[in-house]
Fold these 3 entries.
Entry 1:
Amino acid sequence: MDTKLTLSLNKSVIEKAKKYAKSKNISLSKMIESYLAAVTEKEEKEKQTTPLVESLIGVINLEADFDYKKGYGDYLVKKYQ
């Protein structure tokens, strides 16, 4: 079910958005709806963690500048020498 939403935006932003939507052959409403759906879906996916992962969060304390790629690379070099 579609519901009306009123937004207050900068006039130049609206004009640019209208031109962009027209060039993509979609309505401005559909463009905004797609954007909002993508943003909220991404956030929901980021929040989805399993109970196992939740229990492991914070188990290891690493330095702020820890480079896991370098550390793993060093491990692989040693393993396959």
Entry 2:
Amino acid sequence: MIDYHLHLWSHAGKDSPVAIEQLGAYCDRAGSQGVSEIAVTEHFYRFEQAQSILAGYFRRYPESPMRDLMEHYWERNGTADLDQYVTVAQQAKAAGLPIKIGLEVDYYPEAMTTVQSLLDGYPFDVLLGSVHWIDVWPFDHVDDPFVMAEWERVGVEPAWAAYTRALEELAATRTVDVLAHPDLIKVAGHRPAVPEEYFDRMAEAAAGAGIAAEVSSAGLRKPVEEIYPAPALLERLLALGVPLTTASDAHGLGDVADRAPAIKELLSARGVRTLRGFDRRVGSAIAI
């Protein structure tokens, strides 16, 4: 098993310099849960380098309290040094830790070429692609009543449609290697009348771009209380031959490799025998 989605800082916590000792603790914790390889995949926006190329990005949208919230959140969290992060992860690999160097990269419409140009200068093993916001609405901030109230204004069907369109566009850029938590839009528990229509498009987006999709336990820790992807979406991904990674999306040591044995059992029952590993962004099969 692998855990290819791990963060070093909590959502609310400030970043701190990455240390080999922290990465070693993550590896130890993962190993205790039957996970043989991990990938550190901190959010791209948490680094000063992202701020340098995307400063003022959200000002392309109309001024609003939601835009103010998003800009403040994004700027407050963008203080880490990407070079230091990568250097320490390289040192951990050189020391023999079973670790891959990665990032979680959000979708920035009209700016992905700029993002890719920066990322190409680093020795990443794997890049996860995510959609965490629709325009300036960070729909997965489930603990913020102001953000959650937006569901009533936007509507479930339009939200799912916009999310799915953004996921399709992200996959088509081929900037990333894996679609993380592909049906994240369900995080608050809101589902459309016929989600299968969106699941078809999500699976086809991954298959068409030739990228992997993530099976993550993180949804079990959210209001939706369901693994990403939903069973119906997982069936579609498997039917189209989309390779899979597995993940916890931990933001701290306690959730590293969360429910890894259960995910292994889930996939084994569906005939999955290998996962997609990555090294310098080249995929290979890893026994489940």
Entry 3:
Amino acid sequence: MQTTLRFVIFFVISSHVIAQTFNQEMINTKGTPYLSGKINIEKLNTAPYSQWFSKNYDSYEPKQDIIDDIKTDLRKYTIKIFMGTWCGDSKREVPNFYKVLDASEFPINRLTTIAVRADREHYKQSPGGEQEGLNIHRVPTFIFYKNGKEMHRIVESPKKTIEEDMKDILSGNYTPNYASVTKMNTIIETLGTDYVSKNSEKLINEFSAISKSLYELNTYANVLFFAGKQKEAIEILKFNTLLFPKEADAYISLANKLVITENISDAIKHYEHSLDFDKNEKIENTIGELKKSL
């Protein structure tokens, strides 16, 4: 009897914890609510999220001929959505994605939607840690799995339309946005951080062909940094200054992280280098304050 009672108590407590964390709502520093962790369409259809979700869902019209092409094969996949209810791209693309899934009669039990946070300490993270190991650097990110293996993903926005990108994914003929981040993440995971610094000249030639702006690797580094991978993040930001040597923001982003890690002398050096390309009074004042602290 006691064993049964303990099991019932454990089940009730566990169920309560799960209920608390699913569709979890938080408040940002401006007093605006946002969702964090696993969520569902029912929650997205409630205020204040319904203001953008319902509007964009209703206004999107998928191309029926594409839907007819993908609906059978799409059901062989499972899908994860990583989004931010605070993110403009997510507000635009996630309702469209749901509309395509509904039009394709995709089984809802094969879909998991995870809302990530925007605050600096938990940047693009979920309280359940679902983002770990998945290189979630932009939201929304739609990941397609088959037999438990990731096949492809749509990052931030489709290259054509949601349904056309899905068709390309199902055909195996798809390259997502931010190829530079995918490449750098593969290097970090397989060859290690030191490989980047030791082979920077070779890598600059490779990355110059696929990097559209300094903010691609910059955002990726920010995600790593606030996920506790400071060494990797700083090495990527150093590489980014070599890749974009005349961009002030590349040096400022690196210097900001060096300040946090208390590497003040190097931070000052990179802040000063940024002034060669942008005479920024705020940065000049920051340099003065840091020099006083030494």
